Amino acid sequence: MDSQRIFILVKPDGVERGLVGEILGRIEAKGYKLEDLRFMRAKEEVLRVHYAHLADKPFFPEIVRYMTRGPVVAAIFSGANVIEGVRALAGATNPTQAVPGSIRGDLAREWGHGNIENLIHASDSDENAEKEISLWFN
Ligand code: TYD
């Protein structure tokens, strides 16, 4: 397929733990091209749009607290089938279930206080990637 784009975030736990280079490096080392990069604080109103599919879940306030507790790194990568490829690199949502070899499987775990801290967000479709790119990089 032709080149595709994906939006990714290194979440606050990734920045806190000094894993920005490791996470971006794994995506670059796989061969995807870094197209844009921003270090920023996530705004609650942006998270409400970004996580609209989770807005009515009981853990949504925890997600907002987690995602706003420190800075994040937002990036755009491109390449053929980059969405499937980066989601495979990221691993399953729950870091306990994420396979070793993946970012979440190697570098994240459950901390026992309810919400999932899983280091990285990666868009799951072309449509969401383009929406997220305009939302975060407007
Ligand atoms: P989701 O979009 O379902 O997963 P992914 O990030 O793998 O595409 O969920 C978004 C984030 O919400 C997820 O990365 C962590 C958080 N989350 C929880 O804290 N608890 C949950 O039960 C779920 C499903 C998600």
From TrEMBL:
EC number assigned by the record: 2.7.4.6
CDD domains tied to this protein: NDPk_I (cd04413)
GO MF term set: ATP binding; metal ion binding; nucleoside diphosphate kinase activity
Keyword annotations: ATP-binding, Kinase, Magnesium, Metal-binding, Nucleotide metabolism, Nucleotide-binding, Transferase
Domain called Nucleoside diphosphate kinase-like: residue spans: 3-138
Binding residue positions for ATP: K11, F59, R87, T93, R104, N118
Entry keyword annotation includes Transferase: yes
Keyword Protease: no
Protein's recorded name: Nucleoside diphosphate kinase
Organism this protein belongs to: Peptidiphaga gingivicola
